[in-house]
Amino acid sequence: MKTNIQEGIILIPDFSGFTEFVFNTKLYTGEYIVRELLSTLIDVNERYFEISEIEGDAILFYRYDQQPSYHNVSGILRKMRNSFNKKIEELSKSLSTTIDLSLKFIVHYGTFSQYKIGNFRKLYGKTIVEAHQLLKNGLAEQPSYALYTNAFLENSRKQNMNINEEELHKEEVGVIHYFENIN
């Protein structure tokens, strides 16, 4: 059996407040808003990451990379966050509604494989499961953040990596950067 096992980055942007949003928004309006926000994240990515899946309010991005760049990834996250917020402002104004969603990111690194079923490509491995588990972490003090795991930080080229006292260090997991602090 041939396998496609490689090292790479897993990036999951996820909406905070999504469940409440779905329950409090008309079906057509909610679907339109979510589609616009997810499309914005995909467009801003500029094909740096590949898309594995879109899962409701989250996108499972990946990039095979044996020497990931913290600088490149943090730059993409900043662009995604800014575009997401701008799109929420535009949609709120055009639809005359309040959209109470924020964005969090999980950035993880490790070994995973990919297999194909029909026209679909699926990622598989411990790294994928770990990244999904981190979405429900309870560690962040603010709803908008990027959690860079220790696995990512240890394997990335850390040029221009400015960690300061305002960031939340969790030895067992990694570092949480609140968006105001991402450089």
From TrEMBL:
Highest taxon of the lineage: Bacteria
Protein name: DUF2652 domain-containing protein
Species per Swiss-Prot/TrEMBL record: Chryseobacterium phosphatilyticum
